[in-house]
Amino acid sequence: MNTEAANLWQPIPNSPQQAAYESLADELFYGGAAGGGKTDLVIGLAVTRHKKAIIFRREYPQLKDIVQRSHDLLGVTGAKYNGNDSIWRNIPGARSLEFGAVQYDRDVNKFRGRPHDLKAFDELPEFSEHQYRFLGGWLRTTTHGQRVRVVCTGNPPTHADGEWVIRYWAPWLDNQHINPAKPGELRWFAVLDGKDTEVASGNHFQHSGETIRPRSRTFIPARLTDNPYLASTEYGSVLQGLPEPLRSQLLYGDFGVGVQDDPWQVIPTEWVRQAQQRWHEQTHPGPQSAVGVDVARGGDDKTVLARRYGPWFAPLERYPGKETPDGGSVAALTVQALQDDAVANIDVIGVGASAYDMLGDQGGHVVGVNFAEGSKATDRSGRLRFRNKRAESWWGMREALDPLNGDGLMLPVDNELLADLTAPHWKLTASGIQIESKDDIKKRIGRSPDSGDAVVLAALPDMSVVFGFA
User: How many CB atoms lie within 10 A of CB 412?
Assistant: First the structure.
């Protein structure tokens, strides 16, 4: 660090903050507990190590304290702050620092094509995975020798929507990861065939005719005790007085304690976890009951097949949408998955209709499920009705997973499935329970809950009777 930059800000010596400041990771997640100096880290990096930086919070009001801290550092340097554009210019060293917010997924388009050599996300679990990936897509510089990187800070997620952060940094944060990483250890990742994949090193390699350049990630934990400026205050007693699980999340940075569900979440997260805890490998799980087929509708969507054997579900089979462009390809995969004269429940919207027709023409035991159709069913209490088949089907999955009165379902241990089944929200309307549409979920979380829909389809009762098929 040159003398001019050192006069602006320096990390706490021999601390996790210094380790994060000096980390070589392309994507760094720093924090966990409250009070570890997270905000100072991203501001300090921006004003000492980068030429063109931007710090994001989910909403503009949340930027107030960060902007104030930037004034503490830069107010006497000759740098100029433009409040209308939320940007510092003329920072010593010919640097600039911008602040941005993306409250809704569509707000990312305001930053499309705008390059920065540092993209920083403060309180990352408040962002959707789509926002994070999209905004990071313009991480670049034309300045020779200037490093580019993403730095994120945050506490453990308190809502299910933020659990993607645990998946993204799974080697450090997921207690069940098969190959855990040490704090600060670099791991390399690449997107292969549409899937985020850990690879052996950062060396370039060929895949499907393309040169792949892996990017490195790491996580560095920090606690209040690592920050002498706050540790000497009463803040620690404040954190100790919080109720669990918030106490463990903010005091210790514990990513393993319960994430609070949204009050309008259809299926409680703990119910899905319990179903996954009941799951175990079975060589002969019994006769196959059904195969749920959720067909990709284009883009990044996936065609997913879920095979059910009574209460036991096999590991899901996922195929990128480009591999299932028509009904014939979906029908072929479905035929391969079917056993024991089981029924295939296929989402017939879009390409699924063609797959359903082909399977029916061949005499297959197949049911076309149109989630938009009306429903005359009620919940198990007989009091609540449903607006459509989608609501009926998803509420049926909720009831089947109920730990007290459910069907004892056993679901494979699959983080994507967990996230999908806990993604939809519901509301009560004059025409009955309404479940959030697939398109609305995709807008909110940045992807389509294809795995969840496939399992819901597989869990349907004998729809040959319900839908009037012989």
Answer: 18
